[in-house]
């Protein structure tokens, strides 16, 4: 095996950037050097490795089989280095980056954060509200809030509380629903890829989802919730995201009430990272806030 100290880090960085962007010009722009400098770095690295990593053509730089094999490893390695440098920056000590599903961020957490900021004005909170599952081990994300069954491999996970679901609708529509069987006669709001189906609520009542009527469909659960608030129909929502609207009375929970979905909320962090003071503050605050909202393990 070729010792790493015989290969210049700048050369490996040039290879990774060209592989990712597909051209010397694009790599030169990102790295802030000339096209000739990138080309020389790539050529020297190939010579040191004794391997051609790219096919040069008028259309750009195409990876060879060996280049395609090592490019993902280089990409991961430089991502780890970038994370390490970011974590060493003292300016990050009071910056807390939290990855949260978009609907949870907009429907619950965003309404609670002023309380945390009032208690800890020195902490700057950054919310990464993306449906993509970020890996806190290889990113600048400090904490992730996830919904699932746990078992997050190679990560530290802490159970927060079980997920419950309940049908919700506007008060005027709720006045027309006297029993679960009445759901056959009102619009049912649906999303195309729900986390759980109506059977989790109907089956314990001895009812089948086939009784449900038609209704509007929206691609996003947040839109479904807004439609329910506006009177568009009944939506089977998970408790925490309907919490604010239920508390304000813009939504009503239909009897007999909440059911367990079999999923839970988890706080997920990297195993190899010591929690910062900001992270510790947020963890304690989050648990207290959840308990105050009635969400307990």
Automatic annotation (TrEMBL):
PROSITE patterns: HTH_LYSR (PS50931)
Keyword tRNA processing listed: no
Gene3D superfamilies assigned to the protein according to its UniProt record, in alphabetical order: Periplasmic binding protein-like II, Winged helix-like DNA-binding domain superfamily/Winged helix DNA-binding domain
UniProt xrefs under PANTHER family: GLYCINE CLEAVAGE SYSTEM TRANSCRIPTIONAL ACTIVATOR (PTHR30537:SF26), HTH-TYPE TRANSCRIPTIONAL REGULATOR (PTHR30537)
Family per similarity comment: Belongs to the LysR transcriptional regulatory family.
Domain HTH lysR-type: 7-64
Protein name (Swiss-Prot/TrEMBL): LysR family transcriptional regulator
């Amino acid at each position: 095996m070729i010792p790493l100290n015989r290969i210049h880090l700048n050369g490996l960085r040039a290879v990774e950037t060209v592989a990712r962007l597909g051209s010397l010009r694009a790599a030169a722009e990102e790295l802030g050097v000339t096209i000739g400098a990138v080309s020389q770095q790539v050529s020297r690295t190939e010579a040191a490795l004794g391997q051609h990593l790219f096919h040069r053509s008028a259309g750009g730089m195409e990876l060879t089989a060996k280049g395609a094999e090592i490019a993902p490893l280089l990409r991961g390695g430089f991502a780890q280095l970038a994370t390490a440098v970011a974590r060493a920056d003292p300016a990050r000590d009071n910056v807390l980056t939290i990855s949260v599903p978009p609907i949870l961020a907009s429907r619950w957490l965003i309404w609670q954060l002023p309380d945390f900021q009032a208690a800890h004005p020195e902490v700057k909170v950054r919310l990464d509200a993306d449906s993509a599952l970020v890996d806190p081990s290889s990113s600048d994300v400090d904490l992730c809030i996830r919904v699932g069954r746990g078992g997050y491999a190679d990560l530290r996970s802490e159970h927060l509380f079980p997920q419950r679901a309940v049908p919700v609708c506007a008060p005027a529509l709720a006045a027309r629903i006297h029993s679960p069987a009445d759901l056959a006669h009102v619009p049912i709001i649906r999303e195309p890829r729900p986390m759980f189906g109506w059977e989790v609520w109907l089956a314990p009542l001895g009812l089948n989802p086939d009784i449900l009527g038609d209704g509007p469909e929206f691609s996003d659960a947040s839109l479904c919730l807004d439609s329910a608030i506006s009177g568009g129909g009944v939506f089977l929502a998970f408790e925490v995201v309907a919490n604010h609207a239920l508390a304000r009375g813009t939504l009503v929970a239909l009897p007999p009430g909440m059911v367990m979905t079999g999923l839970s909320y988890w706080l997920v962090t990297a195993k190899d990272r010591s929690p910062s003071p900001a992270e510790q503050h947020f963890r304690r605050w989050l648990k207290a806030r959840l308990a105050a909202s009635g969400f307990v393990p």
